Amino acid sequence: MKGEYLFRVRGKRIRFSFKIRRNITVIQGNSATGKTTLLSMMYEYLRAGRESGYSVQAGTDYFVYLRDEVGRDWTDVLFPLHDTIIFIEENNNFIFSQEFAEFVKDSGNYFVLVTRAPLKMLPYSVHEIYEIVADGQHADLKESWHTLRELYSNFPIPDSNHMETVLTEDTNSGFEFFQNIFSQSVVKSAEGNGNIAKAITETKSGDLLVVADGAAFGAMMENCMGVLKDTRSQRISLWLPESFEYLILQSGIVSAPNLDDILRSPADYIDSRTFISWERYFTELLITLTKDTLYSYSKQTLAKYYLTEQNKKKMIACFPEAIREKLSQPTQ
Fold it and tell me: CB-side exposure of 81: number of CA atoms within 13 Å?
């Protein structure tokens, strides 16, 4: 399944409007924010159509799973579904299981999971974690409008962060690149995104910049936020680009006939049956585009082509402004 889908869910006094564009979307938020209301409206429309008093416009098949029924568990209900956006209500603990993770990987469906707990078995994007909010631009006395707002995004890098230490999740090509770029900083590898929170706590002093692949960082975000709250004496900033490979493709170092279209609308090209995350797609795309060339890309060793001054400048042009300004400062 691929593509981006606009949902419009409407009742007599409440409306929801939102887009789903990846295979895994997470909806968080406190009680009474509309999560259960949204899924209940969609479920009732599936069951009774217009007689439910609701309407749903989706542009694709969808299914709402509320709870196990007598004699049927989630596998009986969900395994037959294909090319469907599956919404799952919170308190269904099977979403934390390895069996469910394998189903998500192999089914080719999209999943919208309502949960306040991190899904450590699944590589989902930090940019696809949302909360439901009222949209004041459309609210009136008769109807309340609601949409999804991204809960986490790339955190601004303040000018006051001197980036004395740069912590990356990469161990090989990505680490090699950032070590070369941040020559005025101490560059460390957390050796995987699951170790970043621990690595932050082990960096006891000095300004810190954390660089991680946003495409698969969703489950790690809550732990990192908890660590950041406990380290107020340090200036710590997060930079969460899609992935290192995405940065290379975005920079223009590598060219292909339809690359601009892919980067503009990844959802139209990334099949969830083949790629569990966008990071994996962009890695394979970069490897394919550079195969049998002098700048053949490998995650293990970075070709010297990517470290030429011209290409480093192209990469840096894709960095946040505060980082670009820091890198442009002369060596002390």
Answer: 22
Helix (H, G, I), strand (E, B) or coil at 322: helix
User: Average pLDDT over the chain, rounded to whole?
Assistant: 90
Phi/psi for 83 (5° steps) reads: 50, 50
pTM for this structure? 0.90
* Strands 61-65, 84-88: pairing kind: parallel
Spatial distance between the Cα atoms of 118 and 60, rounded to a whole number of angstroms: 27
Are the beta carbons of 200 and 210 closer than 8 angstroms?
yes
Question: Phi then psi for 198, rounded to 5 degrees?
Answer: -65, -40
Those residues with Cβ within 8 angstroms of residue 68's Cβ, 6 or more apart along the chain or in another chain: 74, 92
Joined tokens for residue 269: 């090209």
Find, among 168, 105, 198, 108, the residue nearest to 302 by Cα.
168
pLDDT tens-digit series, residues 43-83:
999 999 999 999 999 989 999 999 878 778 999 999 999 99
> What is the three-class DSSP state of 92?
coil
CA distances to 40, 76, 139, 265 from 13, in Å: 14, 35, 10, 34
Residue type, 53: G
Residue 168 has a pLDDT of: 94
Enter the tokens of residue 130: 């949302």
3-state secondary structure of 290: helix
Segment (H or E) for 321: helix 321-328
Inter-residue contact 267 to 3 (CB < 8 Å): yes
Amino acid at 153: S
**Tens-place pLDDT, residues 163-214:** 899 999 988 999 999 999 998 899 999 998 889 989 988 887 788 999 999 9
What torsion do the CA atoms of 290, 296, 298, 302 make, to the nearest 10 degrees? -130
Rounded Cα distance between 243 and 158, Å, is 22
Tokens of 25: 């979307």
